[in-house]
Structure formats: structure tokens, C-alpha cells
Design a protein that fits this description.
With 270 residues, the chain is mainly alpha-helical. The protein has one domain. Helices cover 72% and strands 0% of the residues. It contains 14 helices and no strands. It starts with a helix and ends in a 6-residue tail after the last helix. The N terminus and C terminus are likely disordered.
């Protein structure tokens, strides 16, 4: 059964939107995949109860619960990363004292933010004088711009980068749980094969069958994935990619309508 067929069978596309499916549910499924594979290969055919329990969890709130856990872990990791980086990626890109973007590009975004959002971004001198106040202006501009890019057809690349950032952030936040599941899967496979024992002699050399070999390879592979791929650097790179797309969207956001003279002037009858 392919992933698409499984999604259709569970009706996940009707329960969760594309962002929830990719950025929240998928990292959770990656966390559980070694355990699911372990049950399927070692106990699935012999334990109808385990199969029935999995079906009930999958169709009675399991995806929502898993997505909620992953979202919480990801947000906690995000708060920590923002403190370590010194701000959000959208803020870091616009700071004059950082070189993530060319000065000409920053000046262009400064002009667009004023005309499209009605928010004046600080100059170099203003940022040097009060960096905290400057950051507040950058945050306000990003907060004002995000709702204007919610149309996925008009801003498809913004949404794609948002999903990619959410996936990497949530996977990074879930990495310790994923690593624990991978280690538990490897130990379970070794114990089931008779390599590990609960009494002396604790270790014995036995020939592993294909199912145990597959489980060990998957467990080691996922352990490496959680340790060496879903790192803070991966999240930061995805965050910068999203931030660049978000600020680029200023070019396509309609200009903020100017107030007419009649609206600015006090009424004659006042």
C-alpha cells in the first residue's frame, strides 16, 4: 500500500490540511516508523490485538494527538533556537548589522514595507541607536505581512517554504523521542532474536534472520537521521529560506491605500 493510498484510506486529507499533514503529522510518523515496522515484522501477524489497537488509534483521534505532540515539541525547540540565534529569521535577515542579505535588497524591502504595509523600517543609524526598537519594527512588519500571503495560489513558494520550515522545526523538536524509539527498536530486535538476554549470559552470538537485520538497519539509520540531519543548523537554513520568500512577497502585495485629503482633514461642521 502506497503512502497516498494509506492517506486516502484513513481520510487524513479530510481531517488535516496540507500543512498539518506534512509539517506536523509526517515528523510524528517518522518518530514512530521504527516501532511500527518492528510490530509489523515481529508481532503483527501473531498479535491481532496490536493490529486492531493501531487501527483504532489511526481512525479515532490518533493523528490529531500525534500532530499536537509534535507541534508542542517543535514550538518549544523554536523558542530555544530563537534565543540562541538572537531573533527570528525574518528579523535577522533585515538587520543592517548582519550580512544575510545585500544592503541594496534591504533598502528595497524597507521601501516596500513603507508603501505596502505602512510600516517604517529603521535606518542604519536608528538601528545602531536602539537595536531593540529596530527589532520590534522588523517583527511588526513580518507580522503584518504574513496574513497577506495566506493565499496559496498567489504565493505558492511562501507556503512551500513555510511547510518545509515547519517540518524541519518539528522534526528537530521531536528528535530525542525519535532517537529513543530507534534505540528501543534496535534493543527489541536483538532481544527477539536471542542476542540479548535478561539473565547471564546477557549476550550470545546467533544468526539473525532477514526481519531482524532490516529492523537493525532501519533503527541505526533513523538514529543517524535524528542525530546528524535534523539539527539546529537544518532548521535555521529552512527558516532563512522561508524568511526570504516572505520578504520577496512584498513585491506582489498590493499597496496600502492612502487616506484621502477629505478623510485627513477635519469636517467643516466640527
Amino acid at each position: 500500500m502506497s503512502g497516498g493510498e494509506l492517506t486516502m484510506r484513513l481520510g487524513l486529507s479530510k481531517i488535516l490540511d496540507p500543512y498539518d499533514l506534512t509539517a506536523r503529522l509526517l515528523p510524528g510518523l517518522l518518530v514512530l516508523l521504527p516501532a511500527i515496522l518492528c510490530i509489523a515484522l515481529l508481532y503483527g501477524a501473531k498479535s491481532p490485538m496490536a493490529v486492531a489497537l493501531g487501527s483504532v488509534l489511526a481512525t479515532c483521534g490518533g493523528p490529531h494527538l500525534l500532530s499536537s505532540f509534535v507541534r508542542t515539541w517543535g514550538q518549544r525547540a523554536q523558542d530555544r533556537l530563537f534565543r540562541e540565534w538572537g531573533g527570528q529569521p525574518t528579523t535577522l535577515l533585515l538587520r543592517h548589522r548582519h550580512s544575510y542579505l545585500p544592503p541594496v535588497t534591504k533598502e528595497r524591502y524597507r521601501e516596500l514595507a513603507a508603501s505596502r504595509l505602512g510600516i517604517a523600517l529603521p535606518t542604519i543609524g536608528e538601528e545602531e541607536e536602539d537595536p531593540a526598537k529596530a527589532d520590534q519594527a522588523y517583527i511588526a512588519a513580518a507580522d503584518a505581512l504574513r496574513p497577506l500571503t495566506n493565499d496559496r495560489r498567489t504565493f505558492p513558494f511562501v507556503f512551500k517554504e513555510l511547510v518545509a520550515y515547519g517540518f524541519n522545526r518539528n522534526a528537530h523538536g521531536s528528535r530525542w523521542v525519535g532517537l529513543a524509539v530507534a534505540v528501543a527498536t534496535a534493543l527489541t530486535a536483538l532481544a527477539h532474536a536471542g542476542v540479548l538476554r535478561m539473565q547471564p549470559q546477557f549476550w550470545s552470538a546467533v544468526d539473525l534472520d532477514p526481519a531482524h537485520i532490516v529492523l537493525l538497519v532501519v533503527a541505526v539509520g533513523f538514529a543517524c537521521l535524528w542525530c546528524f540531519h535534523f539539527t539546529a543548523q537544518t532548521v535555521q537554513q529552512a527558516g532563512f529560506s522561508y524568511a526570504k520568500r516572505l520578504w520577496e512577497a512584498l513585491e506582489r502585495v498590493p499597496k496600502k491605500p492612502a487616506r484621502s485629503r477629505a478623510a485627513r482633514a477635519p469636517a467643516a461642521a466640527d
